[in-house]
Write a structure and sequence with these properties.
The structure is a homodimer of 243-residue chains.
Chain A (H helix, E strand, L loop, with lengths): L10 H14 L12 H8 L3 H13 L3 E4 L5 E4 L4 H18 L4 H22 L2 H14 L6 H17 L4 H12 L2 H5 L5 H20 L2 H29 L1
Antiparallel strand pairs in A: 1-2
Helix pairs in contact in A: 1-3, 2-3, 4-8, 5-7, 5-8, 5-10, 5-11, 6-7, 6-10, 7-8, 10-11
The structure holds a DNA duplex (30 and 30 nucleotides).
Chain lengths: 243, 243
DNA sequence: GCAAATTTAAATGTCATACAATTAAATGTC
DNA sequence: GACATTTAATTGTATGACATTTAAATTTGC
C-alpha cells in the first residue's frame, strides 16, 4: 500500500482508499487488526492526525471499528445487513430529496421492485410475515390513527411483504426504496375513504400471497401504485390551486 | 445542534451526526457553506482536529465537499446518482463477500430485480439501449474473449436492460445487485458451449424487449438465472471433487 | 500458593499550536 | 483600464502533549 504525495487528493483520502482496497480485495480479512495509528503514520510517512482522518472516513462507512485500551485498535469490520440497511436508507432518502425525483418516478421504482418480490413471497408464504401483514392491516383500520402512524404501518406492511421473499439481499435492496419514500408519503392526507381503499388493496395483496397467486399480487400492486400516484397528484393539484 | 460530552460516542461521531441530521432535515440546503472549521470548533467547544475528523466522516459519505482557499470551506453536496451508484456498489460487494451469501441467493435477488425492470424496458424499448444490448451480444460472440471480458460485457448487457426502463432510481438500486455479483461470476469458466447458450438467451431477451413482450423477457430471464446457477454449481462441484 | 488489589503499558481520544498550501479578493502599478 | 502584487481567509498537515480506557503484568495480603 503506497500513496503519492503529489496527488491532487488529500493524503487522508489516499490512505483511506488504499486501506479500503486492501479490505475489498480480501488482503485484510474480517476482524484483522490494522497497525496502530502511530505505526500507520510511520508506514505512510504522515502525521497521526492525518491517519486518524483516514480511519474516520473508513469508520463512517462501517468498514472498520475501533476499540480503545491496551489491546485496542482499528479492526476490519464485518459489514452487517443491519449497517448496510441503514446506509442504503439514508443514501436513498438523500438521493430522492436532493435530485427532484418526481413522486411518480420513485413510486414506479418502488412498486416494480415490490412486484419482483411478490412471486417469491407467494411461493414461500411464511406464516410470520403473513401474520405481520394482517396485523398491520388491522392497525390501519383503527380509527383515530394519525397520518404519520398510518404511513409507518404502511411501510411495515410492505417490508413484511418484501421480507417474506426470504432473501436478505432483496430485503436490503428494497429497504432503501421503501423507506426513502416515507417523507413524500407523509405529505399525503389520508381521508377515511382513501384509507378504506388502501386497506382493501392491502387485504387483496395478503390474500394473494397466502393463496400463492403471484399474478394476482402483481396486478393488485399495480393497482395500488396507480392509486397512490393519483392521491399524490390530488395533493399537488390542491396545493397549486391554493397558490 | 448540540452534543453531549458524556455520551459514549466519540465527539467527532456526535458532531458528524448532528450535521448529517441538519442536512437530511433540509435545515442545511444543498450548496450551503458550513461555518469554517475554526468556527465549528468554537460552536461545539471542541478542538479543530476533532471537527476535522467529523467533516471527514461526512466527506466519506459524499454529504459534503471541501474547497481550499479564501472563499473555500465545506459545502453541502448534492448527492449525485453517480456518487450513489459507487457507494451502492461497494456496499453491496462487501455485503456479499463478507456474509457468506450463497451464489444462489445473490442470483435470485439479482434476477428478481431484473425481471422487475423488464416490463418497463419492454414498454419503452428505447433505441439506444437496445443498440447497446445488441452490441454487447456481438462482443460476447467474439472468439478469444477472456472470461473477465465476457463477464464485463455481460454486466454491460444487463445494465443496458435495466437502464432501458428509463427510471434512474431503479438503475441506482440495481447497480449494486448486478455489479456486486461480478466477483463470483468471474470465478466461472465460460466454455465455448456455455457462451453460445448464454448468447442465445441474451438474444431472446433483446428480442423480447424489442417486441414489447414482457412475459417472454420474464421467462427468458428465469431461464438464464437457472442456467447461471447450474454453471456455478458445476464449478463448485468440480472444486469439491479436486479436494 | 492463591486471590485480590495495584501498577503498568499500549492504544485511542482530545487538545493546543504552528506552519504550509491554496485561492479569491483587494490593492497597487503602469 | 489592464495587469501584477499583496493580503487575508481557509483548508491541509505536522508536532507534541495529555486524558482516557483497557487488558495484562505485578505486587500485596493472607
Amino acid at each position: 500500500m503506497k500513496i503519492d504525495p503529489n496527488s491532487p487528493k488529500d493524503l487522508s483520502a489516499q490512505i483511506a482508499q488504499a486501506i479500503k482496497e486492501a479490505i475489498i480485495s480480501g488482503e485484510l480479512p474480517v476482524d484483522e487488526r490494522l497497525p496502530s495509528e502511530s505505526e500507520l503514520s510511520e508506514q505512510f510517512d504522515v502525521s497521526r492526525p492525518t491517519v486518524r482522518e483516514a480511519l474516520k472516513r473508513l469508520a463512517a462507512q462501517s468498514l472498520i471499528r475501533t476499540q480503545r485500551g491496551a489491546t485496542g485498535g482499528a479492526f476490519v469490520n464485518r459489514l452487517s445487513f443491519k449497517d448496510a440497511y441503514a446506509q442504503q436508507i439514508t443514501t436513498s432518502t438523500l438521493l430522492l430529496s436532493m435530485n427532484a425525483v418526481s413522486f411518480e418516478t420513485a413510486c414506479e421504482a418502488r412498486y416494480a421492485l415490490e412486484r419482483a418480490c411478490a412471486p417469491l413471497s407467494a411461493a414461500k408464504r411464511e406464516a410470520d410475515h403473513l401474520a405481520t401483514m394482517r396485523a398491520e392491516i388491522h392497525r390501519q383500520s383503527q380509527p383515530g390513527l394519525s397520518d404519520e402512524a398510518f404511513c409507518a404501518s404502511d411501510v411495515a406492511f410492505h417490508r413484511a411483504l418484501v421480507d417474506g421473499a426470504g432473501n436478505p439481499v432483496l430485503s436490503y435492496q428494497l429497504a432503501g426504496a421503501i423507506e426513502a419514500m416515507q417523507p413524500s408519503m407523509n405529505m399525503i392526507t389520508f381521508t377515511a375513504r382513501s384509507r378504506t381503499e388502501i386497506i382493501a388493496l392491502h387485504t387483496r395483496i395478503a390474500d394473494a400471497i397466502e393463496a400463492g397467486a403471484p399474478e394476482q399480487a402483481d396486478a393488485t400492486l399495480t393497482e395500488l401504485q396507480s392509486y397512490t400516484v393519483r392521491l399524490a397528484n390530488d395533493v399537488i393539484a390542491a396545493r397549486a390551486a391554493k397558490a
